[in-house]
Prior knowledge:
The protein has helices at residues 2-25, 379-411, and strands spanning 35-42, 58-66, 73-75, 82-85, 89-93, 99-102, 108-109, 115-116, 122-130, 136-145, 160-168, 189-196, 202-211, 217-225, 231-241, 247-249, 254-260, 269-274, 279-281, 286-292, 300-305, 310-315, 320-330, 338-341, 344-346, 355-358, 366-369, 371-373. By secondary structure, it is mainly beta. Belongs to the flagella basal body rod proteins family.
Amino acid sequence: MAFRIALSGLEAASTDLDVTGNNIANVSTSGFKESRAEFADIYSTSIQDLGTQSAGRGTRVARIAQQFSQGTIEFTSNNLDLAINGEGFFILGDDQGSRYYTRSGAFGVDREGYIVNHAGQRLQVYDAVAGSGGTTTFDTGALVDMQLELQPSPPNATTEISAGINLNAALDLPTSATFSIADPNSYNSATSITVYDSLGEAHTATLYFGKTSTANQWNVRMAVAVNDTTTTVVGPETVTFDSAGALSLPASGILSFSPYAFTNGAANMSVDVDFNTATQYAGEFGVNDLSQDGYASGRLNGIDVDDTGVVFARFTNGRSTSLGKVVLAKFNNPDGLGQEGGNNWNETFDSGDAQLGEAGTASFGVIQSGALELSNVDVATQLVKLIVAQRNFQANAKVISTSDQVTQAVINIR
C-alpha cells in the first residue's frame, strides 16, 4: 500500500511541477493568468473500513485553478494594443461563428481592414449608428466584426462662416467710391479664410468691409477664387451696429451670399456668414474668431480607442469618425472558463453564461489604448513553489525507496 500512496504523491508533485513550469514559461505572455494545482486526500470508502481509523490512500489532483487577478498594465506605442483594468474579457469571433474570450489585447489590422489578433480572430464591437444632429449611437442588439474604413473620408462643402471680428468705428469712409478688390482705397478692412466646394477643392474666400455714410453701417462683400484666374465677388450686404458697438441688423446675425459657380464640376456653393459675435468698437480691426464648416477629403491617418471602448478613425482632413464600441464580457465564475490556448478561453457550464456590456459600466473595467496587460505570474513566488514541488517529489520518492527496503527485508526472512 505504501507504494501506491507514494506513487500518488509522485504524480501530484509532478503535476505541481508541470503547473508551476507552465506559469514560469508564460511569464511574458500578454493577458496570461497563472494557475495553481489543488490537491485532495484519498481515504478508503469500502464497507469494511467504515467507522475505523484509516491511514489514507494518498492524494490526487482535485483541480487546476486559474487565478484571474489583475496583471500589470504596460504602455506601448501601438494604439491598437488594448488593456482591460477590471473583470471584463475581449470577445473574438472567427469565420466559423465561434466565440472566444481573451485578456490579451495585442491587436492589428488584416488586409481587409478587420481588427484581429495573432490568429486572425476578429474583435467584436457594437456597430456605430449615425443619429440626428451628427450624433452617433451604438447598436447594442448584435455583435459585429470591427472593420476600419479604408475608403477616404468624403469632403464637405462650406455652408457657413463664423466671423468674430471687430470693425474700427473710428475709420473714415473709403476714398474710392467704386469697389474693387485690386483697390485697397475702396474698402476699409479685409480678412480671408479657406473654404471648400462639394468636391473638396480648397478656395480662398475674402470678406471685404467698407464703411457707409449711414451711421454704424458697413457694406460686406465676399470674394471667392473659383479657379486659378477668376475671382467672383458677391454683395454688398449690410450689417448695422448699435451705439454700444453690438450688432443690431440683421436681427438673425446671418448674411447669406448668393451661390458661387465653379468650373471643376462642383455644385454651386452658397455661404452664410455669422456675425453674431462681431463688434464695432473704436479700436484696430481685429479677427477674434474666423472658422468655417467645410473640409476636404481625407485618408485614414490613425485609430484611437477611448476608455469606454469607442473606436475612432482619424483622417488627414482633421475629421474623426466613430466606427464601433468594443464589447466586453464577464462571467459569474471566470475560474470555470475553458482554456483554449492562444490566450483564449471559452464559455462552459461552470463559468456561467457570458454577460455582455461596455467598458466603464458595472465591473467590466475600463479600456486603456496603447497598453497591454502583462501576465499576472510572480516569478519569485513561482520559483519558491518550484523548490517546494521538487522537495515533495523527492520525499515521495524516498517513501518508495524505504518501502522497497522494508519489503526486501521481509523477503529475506529465513
